Amino acid sequence: MLHVIARLLLFGALVAWSLSLLLPFITVTTFYFFDDSQTLPGSVAQLWGRGEYLLAVIIAIFSLILPLAKILMLFLSSYFMHSGKSRLVIFLEKYGHWSMLDIFVIALLLVSFKLDSIVSASVHAGFYAFTFCVILTMLANTLLKSTKMIKS
């Protein structure tokens, strides 16, 4: 029964991750009237276009690729738990602590923008969808690890 709940959480995480790619993530306002709203993939593309290749790759890996990979690996491991996949779940739980890094960086950026009188920033539904995705994935991982079906 717990593995079914974990799969539902993972499905919700997949929906939230998809929404986080489509919905505006952050808006940066400069000089009080120039607004720039970005989606997560749009931010990566903009960084790449500006020549900030390292930052674009880091954000793409940690925000676009790894969350999806984690969701898919957890979903697969929920079906193949008896074939030695428990180490994968334990690894993903350790990686999961780094999942909140993106949210922490955005929070730091917001604080730094709030301290500046010329630039301001605000988060939108894409940020909250991404946060919800991370939380659901962590809950599903914890649930899968705690079931007797996975040997720690």
How does this model look, in words?
About 20% of the residues are buried. The chain has about 150 residues and is mostly helical. The chain is built from 6 helices and 3 strands; from the N terminus they run αββααααβα. A hairpin with a 3-residue loop joins strand 1 and strand 2. Helix 3 runs antiparallel to helix 4 (about 85-100), helix 3 (about 55-80) packs parallel to helix 6 and helix 4 (about 85-100) runs antiparallel to helix 6. A 3-stranded antiparallel beta sheet has the order 2-1-3. The chain starts with a helix and ends in a 6-residue tail after the last helix. The protein has a single domain, classed as Up-down Bundle (Butyryl-CoA Dehydrogenase, subunit A, domain 3), CATH 1.20.140. The model has no long low-confidence stretch (mean pLDDT about 80). It has helices spanning about 1-20, 40-50, 55-80, 85-100, 100-115, 125-145; strands at about 25-30, 35-40, 120-125. It is elongated.
Shape, principal axes of CA atoms? elongated
What is the top-level CATH class? Answer: Mainly Alpha
Name of the CATH architecture: Up-down Bundle
Number of DSSP helical runs: 6
The residue ranges in which pLDDT falls below 50 over 5 or more consecutive positions are none
Structural class designation: mainly alpha
Distance between the termini: 19 Å
Helix content: over 70%
**What strand line-up does the widest sheet have?**
2-1-3
| CATH topology assignment | Butyryl-CoA Dehydrogenase, subunit A, domain 3
Largest sheet: 3 strands, antiparallel
The rounded Rg comes to 18 Å
What pattern of helices and strands is seen along the backbone? HEEHHHHEH
